[in-house]
């Protein structure tokens, strides 16, 4: 329901509610960029503070990671019934190919295989459309025929020729399984979607009728009907094949359960043990009531350092939003960030009292919002290799309302995006001046994170409404105004001496890095993510444009900020950072007033004037400059490798982490070690 995905590389300038701390010593030598192909970039992430975990916690992470990786085949099969066949076939060709590896066909073959790995199947992970190979059918047929037939994923009794006839259109024909999820409401969305959540002869009407019949009237605590099953027709009647031990995907789920049992032994406390044990029960029974119990226990487990997601979770993969795709994420609390958010929380009242807004709109008593920042340790299933940077679960509405939810941002993933972008030539292309370039190099990541933390912990929590005012009265402009309020709160305080006093920044110039980056992004670089001819739609982007363009205009006569053109390229130049801070303060006062009074007209005026429209000439220029950098628009990650160290008696003495595995290497290893399902699961 609430996944924050990063689709484009501009994360450096897109801090979508995330905060990541870093210490200088671990940042520099690490190689974040692994490789790039098609529209995909493969990155690597670090797991900071791994060595601060106790051996018990490391064993817990290790066991949960094994539980995570063992589900890999499930997602492939959920995405399309042929995905495991295609993957296994391509891997067999890859490992046995004896032809010319410099031929264009082979190179295209390699790209196609890498894309299948990345997408967990034959459809684009984000666009949902089937991507087509660049190699010829002849190359493909010859490569398959040259394999020993024991390596070809044949059905029982099937000949290689019959197999080829079956699989060739799956790979080559653009009309066959054209889209993984098709939302076109004029069509039967079940029939035209290529995923494997429903039998091939099941219609949308039948699915809707089947699940509507399950719903009980006036049920205040409904289970997520249909989440963990495939719906098929058996002898003309609809029936669910439940994903559970003894049911569909049993061989993989048995392995997951084995490792969850291991994890349970190392649970940090009773609540966490309860979470793991309930999940095991759910996997064994397939009972969705158990799943809800597990979800509730999971929400209540707030004290453990280590945490995880493992199961059929998000429903984006199903056009009707019923079936959960399998995903897993193992993580632990971001230890660096904890101390910092505590400092902010302890001083929340000071920030509120000293904000440059009308005293009537300030909270008398302010409490910082608690949100958790986490360090990812293993990504799997629908979180691998493409992964969200923030997650908010569970999806059950009544659990969210009655018990709550957990909202996390994954800081080491954000950091990896950040660092990988730093080597992309982006700053060299878009930052005007060497002074700013140096500041951004030195303080960019640190101030980016600090701004995010100020935004999250204090900005959203600040201020109060006037009696009778309602935030909803800002309607469609509400979320842009709210993001602007939180951003401005953060921007204003970034340049405050209090930052140095609290030890949050060490250098009085550091904040300029964030100011420059913010203005550059809001005025120029974020346009790279918008199609030519389109306006700005997304509310975080509208907010950034609003703030930057308002400050540009208001500071015009003092030349606080300027847009300068050099050799046909537009740059942002900030002449006076102190005055810029003053402008942020002024706009904060106005945006807080709009919020506190629910002033719709003023909100509309601000957003429509500064947040929506795009200068077409600048837009075109930015996109061209961006394209020349050749930065892949979508990113994914390889996982680190965890290895056990044993003493002479076979007892585990430590678990080491390493970051040396390449993308192909990792994918092939996973295909060997975690190949738990048969090729055909129908
Ligand atoms: Zn926000």
Question: What report would you give on this structure?
Answer:
The chain is built from 25 helices and 15 strands. It starts with a strand and ends in a 9-residue tail after the last helix. By secondary structure, it is of the alpha+beta class. Among the domains are: 2-20 and 36-49 and 334-630, no CATH class; 81-179, no CATH class. It has helices at 24-27, 55-69, 72-79, 83-96, 104-119, 137-145, 160-172, 204-214, 250-265, 270-285, 288-300, 335-346, 348-354, 397-402, 411-422, 426-430, 434-459, 478-494, 498-501, 510-523, 539-554, 577-597, 600-612, 616-628, 663-673, and strands at 2-5, 33-37, 40-44, 229-234, 237-242, 306-314, 325-333, 372-381, 388-393, 406-410, 561-566, 569-574, 634-638, 641-646, 652-658. The longest helix is centred in the middle third of the chain and has 26 residues, at 434-459. Helices cover 46% and strands 14% of the residues. Helix 18 packs antiparallel against helix 22 (577-597), helix 20 crosses helix 21 and helix 21 (539-554) packs across helix 23. Residues 17, 455, 460, 483, 486 line the site of zinc ion (ZN). Zinc ion binds next to helix 18.
In short:
The chain contains 25 helices and 15 strands. It has a 6-stranded mixed beta sheet. Strands 2-3-13 form a 3-stranded mixed beta sheet, with helices on both faces.
């Amino acid at each position: 329901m609430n996944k924050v995905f990063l689709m484009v590389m501009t994360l450096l300038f897109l801090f979508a509610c995330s905060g990541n701390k870093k210490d200088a010593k671990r940042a520099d030598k690490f190689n974040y960029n692994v490789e790039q192909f098609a529209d995909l970039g493969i990155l690597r992430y670090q797991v900071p503070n791994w060595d601060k975990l106790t051996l018990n916690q490391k064993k817990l992470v290790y066991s949960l990671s094994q539980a995570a990786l063992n589900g890999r085949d499930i997602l492939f099969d959920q995405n399309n019934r042929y995905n495991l066949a295609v993957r296994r076939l391509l891997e067999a060709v890859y490992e046995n190919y004896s032809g010319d590896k410099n031929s264009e066909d082979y190179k295209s073959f390699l790209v196609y295989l890498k894309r299948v790995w990345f997408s967990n199947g034959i459809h684009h992970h984000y666009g949902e459309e089937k991507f087509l190979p660049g190699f010829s059918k002849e190359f493909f047929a010859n490569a398959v025929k040259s394999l020993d037939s024991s390596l070809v994923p044949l059905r029982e009794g099937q000949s290689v020729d019959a197999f080829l006839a079956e699989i060739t259109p799956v790979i080559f024909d653009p009309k066959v399984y054209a889209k993984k999820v098709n939302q076109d409401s004029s069509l039967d969305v079940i029939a035209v979607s290529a995923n494997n959540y429903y039998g091939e002869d099941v219609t949308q009407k039948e699915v809707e009728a089947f699940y509507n019949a399950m719903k009980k009237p006036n049920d205040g605590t409904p289970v997520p009907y249909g989440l963990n099953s495939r719906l098929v027709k058996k002898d003309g009647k609809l029936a669910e094949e439940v994903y559970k031990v003894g049911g569909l995907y049993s061989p993989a789920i048995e392995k997951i359960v084995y490792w969850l049992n291991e994890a349970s032994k190392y649970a940090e406390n009773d609540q966490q043990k309860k979470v793991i044990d309930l999940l095991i029960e759910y996997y064994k029974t397939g009972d969705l009531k158990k799943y809800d119990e597990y979800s509730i226990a999971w929400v209540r487990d707030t004290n453990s350092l280590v945490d995880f997601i493992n199961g059929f979770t998000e429903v984006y993969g199903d056009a009707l939003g019923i079936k959960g795709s399998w995903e897993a994420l193992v993580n632990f609390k971001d230890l660096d960030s904890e101390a910092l958010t505590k400092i902010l929380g302890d001083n929340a009242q000071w920030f509120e009292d000293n904000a440059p807004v009308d005293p009537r709109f300030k909270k008398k008593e302010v409490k910082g919002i608690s949100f958790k920042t986490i360090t990812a340790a293993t990504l799997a299933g629908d979180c691998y290799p493409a992964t969200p940077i923030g997650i908010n679960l569970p999806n059950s509405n009544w659990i969210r309302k009655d018990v709550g939810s957990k909202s996390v941002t994954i800081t080491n993933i954000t950091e990896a995006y950040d660092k990988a972008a730093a080597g992309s030539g982006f700053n060299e292309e878009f930052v005007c001046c060497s002074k700013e370039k140096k500041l951004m190099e030195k303080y960019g990541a640190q101030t980016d994170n600090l701004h995010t933390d100020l935004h999250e912990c204090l900005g959203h929590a600040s201020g109060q409404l006037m009696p009778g005012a309602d935030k909803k009265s800002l309607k469609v402009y509400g979320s842009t105004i709210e993001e602007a309020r939180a951003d401005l709160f953060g921007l204003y305080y970034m340049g405050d001496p209090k930052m140095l006093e609290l030890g949050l920044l060490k250098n009085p110039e550091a904040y300029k890095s964030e100011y420059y980056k913010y203005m550059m992004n809001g005025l120029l670089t974020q346009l790279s993510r918008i199609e030519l001819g389109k306006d700005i739609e997304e509310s975080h982007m509208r907010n950034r444009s609003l703030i930057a363009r308002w400050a540009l205009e208001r500071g015009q006569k003092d030349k606080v900020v300027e847009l300068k053109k050099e050799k046909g390229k537009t740059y942002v130049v900030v002449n006076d950072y102190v005055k810029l801070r003053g402008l942020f303060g002024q706009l904060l006062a106005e945006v807080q007033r709009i919020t506190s009074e629910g002033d719709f007209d003023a909100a509309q005026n601000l957003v429509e004037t500064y947040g929506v429209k795009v200068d077409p000439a600048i837009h075109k220029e930015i996109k061209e400059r961006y394209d020349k950098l050749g930065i892949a628009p979508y990113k994914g990650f390889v996982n680190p490798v965890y290895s056990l160290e044993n003493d002479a008696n076979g007892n585990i003495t430590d678990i080491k982490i390493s970051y040396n595995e390449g993308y192909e290497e990792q994918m092939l290893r996973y295909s060997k070690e975690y190949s738990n399902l048969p090729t055909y699961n129908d």
